[in-house]
Design brief:
This protein is of the alpha/beta class. It has 10 helices and 8 strands. It has one domain: Alpha/Beta hydrolase fold, catalytic domain (Rossmann fold), CATH 3.40.50.1820.
């Protein structure tokens, strides 16, 4: 690990895998939903958005004039695939929103800085190239769960868009589920065994430390009621920080859901999180 000592309580609070009785069963359900989504939803696969890394995305339900929502998977930055996250597509596609599900290079082979770079590159690519696929790209909508919630926050953060050729505030709706918005606690967990973060990483890449002063983005936050305290605390703190800046934020309560099955609800066109996200997206169009 890094020079930071493991704190058993903090490690417990952020251990998503052990927060459920059977991780393999939870993961298996999401794979099953994703396999069904890939079979049933129109898809353009393996669109490379970052030639340097080779990272690609799958685009579901593209249609003329449709807004686009970019889904960023979780897995503590070291696990996960776009195919295994196809569950994020059907609910919004059925509501008239195209969904891009992206891959990114995984830790520990790459740093968190590189992962954040690839996610921001995907946003810029969709904004630049999406209109050729018929998409409405004046606003790019984003979302993710767990590590993907952190990366959603990294997209909302200030200070990067100009370097990626983006003029102004291009982010519309943002759905952040069970995210980590201040990285500092993770320095004292087993996660840092593969992430190798330090206080410089915390300062530069913690979304809660880079909330924009001005934005018209609409942040939708949620965390499963059955999740561990670390994720509950992070969501509340990020919510409060957005409110303090006077920005638009909606918190959706999901009692009875855990760290994993909360994401599976995105496959249902009538699910609470899908409706909230659809409404936020359509307000920009």
């Amino acid at each position: 690990m890094s020079a930071y000592d493991l704190d058993p309580q903090i490690d417990h609070d952020f251990n998503a895998r052990e927060s459920v009785a059977d991780f393999d069963a939870e993961f298996g359900k999401l794979i099953e939903i994703s396999n069904r989504a890939m079979a049933d939803t129109p898809r353009q696969a393996d669109l490379v958005f970052d030639p340097q890394s080779g990272s690609a995305l799958d685009l579901y339900g593209a249609g003329e004039g449709r807004p686009v929502f970019l889904w960023i998977h979780g897995g503590y930055w070291r696990l996960g695939t776009k195919e295994g996250n196809a569950f994020a597509a059907p609910g919004l596609v059925a509501n008239g929103v195209a969904v891009a599900v992206m891959d990114y290079s995984l830790a520990p082979a790459v740093t968190l800085e590189q992962i954040v770079h690839e996610v921001r590159t995907a946003v810029a690519w969709l904004h630049r190239e999406g209109s050729a696929m018929g998409l409405a790209t004046q606003k790019i909508h984003v979302g993710g769960s767990s590590a993907g919630g952190h990366l959603t926050g990294a997209v909302l953060a200030d200070g990067w868009r100009q370097d990626y050729g983006l003029l102004g505030d291009v982010i519309g709706a943002a759905l952040a589920l069970s995210g980590i918005y201040d990285l500092e606690p993770l320095l004292h967990t087993q996660v840092n065994g593969w992430m190798n973060m330090d206080m410089d990483t915390v300062r530069s890449l913690s979304p809660i430390r880079h909330i924009p002063n001005q934005t018209d983005a609409h942040l939708i936050l949620s965390v499963g009621g059955e999740e561990r305290e670390g994720f509950l605390r992070e969501t509340q703190a990020y919510h409060d920080a957005w409110v303090a800046k006077g920005h638009k934020v909606t918190q959706v309560d999901m009692p009875g859901y855990n760290h994993f099955d909360i994401t599976g609800t995105l496959a249902d066109p009538d699910a609470k999180l899908v409706r909230a996200t659809r409404d936020a997206i359509m307000a920009f169009h």
